[in-house]
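Annex B.
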Amino acid sequence: MKLMVTGIGGVGGYLASFLSTYYPGQVTLIARKARKESLAAKGLVLHSEYFGEHVTHPAVTDTPANAGIQDVIFVCVKNYSLEAALKAVIPCIGADTIVFLIQNGIDHAEKAREIVPQGHIIDAAVYINSKYNDDFSIEQSGKFARIFFGSDDADSCRRVEEILAHEGLRIHNEGAAIGTQIWIKYITNCAFNVITAYYEETIGAIFARPDGKEQFHTLLEEATNVGRATGIALPEDLVETIYGRVIAQKNKDVYSSLANDIMAGRKSELDTFSGLLVRTAEKVHVAVPLSAMMYHAIAKRIAERQQQ
Ligand SMILES: NC(=O)C1=CN([C@@H]2O[C@H](COP(=O)(O)OP(=O)(O)OC[C@H]3O[C@@H](n4cnc5c(N)ncnc54)[C@H](OP(=O)(O)O)[C@@H]3O)[C@@H](O)[C@H]2O)C=CC1
Ligand SMILES: CC(C)(CO)C(=O)C(=O)O
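2-dehydropantoate 2-reductase: predicted structure tokens.
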């Protein structure tokens, strides 16, 4: 079997370590420059609270075409890198190749369909806290790594389910109903990622603010209202379910991928979250005042920092 992972950061690094543990000799990583050199020289190093310590040695290349047609390509880049990453792996996509997308957001599958000439696209929503370190090792914190995935192609979903059914990942094959999970994750991100980026504080510190929990709840409500207005089927008690889950979360000493990127001065997925939410809200005539306020405030802060 030929498995490829492109985007060897927090999420892709974890998944690549998981895959190369169970499928040694069958995994190729797509990485560039210093990351590629490091992965080739030292292997892929994972420090994971959930999966343990692993050093694996999958093949690494910055020239995907050399790896040939793949069975599954896991695309783990940020939303804004999707187009470039997909175009680079087109030579590896045959008629039967599964292109498994792991991005936060709601528009990446549609974008991917326009780029990928053949094969089968599977969309996924991942719940994990993982990042890459300066030495390109991967650090996963928390006792969970969960993936919901699906598409209307049941055969491809079953093939991926068989590949991923191992300790170190909790998997949920949602089939054609994946859109609901994509929106549930998106709503979570439009609250969790945006509020941690707005305050540049951990979710625990935000909940200790007098209005922190209420603001988090309002962000969930706003995003849920937008989702429903677009016609997506969402559970009746969704806001309370997500709110309750995050309130009950044991480790609250965490930011989000968005907050981490903004605080580190890196390019971010702000537009993927509140930017797109605010634009969609306008189209479907739903008021999202808190999301809009936080979006504009964060965007302004990023622009000001870039000018300094
Ligand atoms: N991190 C987390 O805990 C979570 C992240 N997510 C989502 O998962 C997705 C991935 O996030 P995350 O893993 O954090 O991202 P990272 O920034 O950690 O990693 C992205 C990786 O993609 C690489 N990359 C960028 N462009 C290309 C390209 N054209 N070809 C090949 N590789 C490329 C980058 O390498 P380079 O240095 O070469 O640019 C980097 O290694 C995002 O949509 C995020 O929102 C979801 C849940 C949790
Ligand atoms: C929900 C959360 C915070 C962790 O899975 C996330 O998706 C992110 O950090 O991007």
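The CA atoms of residues 105 and 186 lie 6 Å apart. The mean pLDDT is 97. Further annotation is deferred to the next reporting cycle.
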